[in-house]
Specification:
Elements (H helix, E strand, L loop, with lengths): L2 E10 L2 E11 L4 E5 L6 H8 L7 E6 L2 E2 L5 H7 L1 E3 L12 H6 L10 H5 L3 H20 L15 H13 L5 E5 L7 H16 L3 E5 L3 H7 L2 E6 L2 E6 L1 H5 L2 H21 L1
Parallel strand pairs: 3-8, 3-9, 6-7, 7-8
Antiparallel strand pairs: 1-2, 1-4, 4-5, 9-10
Length: about 260
């Protein structure tokens, strides 16, 4: 078992964003998190990566407690992520954006780089080479010198995934990796995630495209109002009454709101 969550809860004042959630993710899985908007999925990711500290519960990564650790320390242990909103240095090149992902994995310091020490130059060459390999993996070979901001939305997503992968994480967290993509781009991202898993990285992803998640993930957890209401293989999830109620109920509420507004 790679990741074990034991009863984590996150409160913001009187609001309980995540309530007593427990789950396990095994090495080599693609594990999906789905649920209506505001269900607590991104807050859950933020606790896994140290952005938020749980009010209660434990997060065990390779049997080591990581709740409350700083984000950079959690990254060093082997957990990397992307964000719901793309966060690239848009005026820097694609290669430079990916190289940033090696921060925390390098050993030579700032003064070594400024003074041109051989060790710093050798390490920079290594970082460049690793970054180029990852760009090839995500299908961006030949884009190294392009400005990140000039790329299509889909390719900017690929750069962000490459940056998260370059440090060779054991666990990759993807927050809505296909948001804003067309069907062809979505299919390509699914193929990329399978390739990432084949290369030895376990993946947890948040996604609203339920059909796509069902076809990609080994297991799926469903969140609603901050609680985990289901956790099973896709065939069992799709027929679960609580899951159906969570989604159909939300759709009915939205239709009623639209009707009232008109």
């Amino acid at each position: 078992m790679l990741l074990k969550i034991e009863g984590i809860t996150k409160r913001f004042g009187g609001l309980v964003a995540v309530s007593d959630v427990s789950l396990q993710v095994n090495q080599g899985e693609i594990y999906g998190l789905i649920g209506p908007n505001g269900a607590g999925k991104t807050t859950f990711f933020n606790m896994l990566t140290g952005i938020y500290k749980p009010n209660e519960g434990k997060i065990l990564f390779e049997n080591q407690p990581v709740q409350g650790l700083k984000p950079f320390r959690i990254a060093q242990l082997g957990i990397s992520r992307t964000f719901q909103n793309i966060r690239l240095l848009k005026d820097e090149t694609v290669l430079e954006n990916v190289m940033v992902g090696m921060f925390g994995k390098t050993h030579t310091g700032l003064w070594s780089a400024i003074l041109g020490f051989r060790s710093a130059k050798k390490e920079e060459e290594m970082v460049r080479e690793e970054s180029r390999k990852i760009l090839e993996l995500v299908g961006l070979n030949g884009y190294e010198d392009e400005l990140a901001g000039s790329l299509s939305y889909g390719n900017q997503r690929r750069v962000e995934i490459a940056r998260a992968l370059v440090s060779k994480p054991k666990l990759l967290l993807l927050d809505e990796p296909t948001a804003g993509m067309n069907d062809e781009e979505t299919e390509e991202i699914g193929e990329l995630i399978l390739k990432i898993r084949e290369n030895g990285t376990t993946v947890i992803l948040i996604e609203h495209n339920v059909g796509w998640v069902m076809g990609l993930c080994n297991r799926i957890a469903v969140f609603d109002h901050g609680e985990k209401i289901a956790d099973n293989v896709p065939d069992a999830i799709i027929s679960d009454p609580l899951v159906i109620e969570a989604y159909i109920g939300k759709e009915d509420e939205e239709r009623e709101s639209e009707y009232a507004a008109n």
